[in-house]
Amino acid sequence: MARVCDVEGCGLPHRSRGLCEMHYRRAKRAGQLPPLPPKAPVAPGRRRLAVIEDAMWLAGTDSPEAIASRLGYTSWDSLEAALRPLGHAPLVRAILDRRELPKHIRDDGTLEAIPA
Question: Which domain of life is it from (predicted)?
């Protein structure tokens, strides 16, 4: 069953934050959007691994600042500061040089970027 707007008596299809398109726009315009639901906590080690894997995939695709932004960092400096202590200086260099890393197909069919 498709989710519908939370506004009583509306019944239009849900768009975001429990509201239909019309009620969402009205609430946004009035500065009264409902808060986002809390995100599920991510284990610090898993977050770090995910950032490293994503950074390997994004190396060579965009500027360092754009890659940092796509990974949720406020600046390239903050992403670089997160990667260097973990021993990923070659990855930092590849991103700075805008050099794509080679990709490898694992036995299970998934792809992985190979750090330089």
Answer: Bacteria
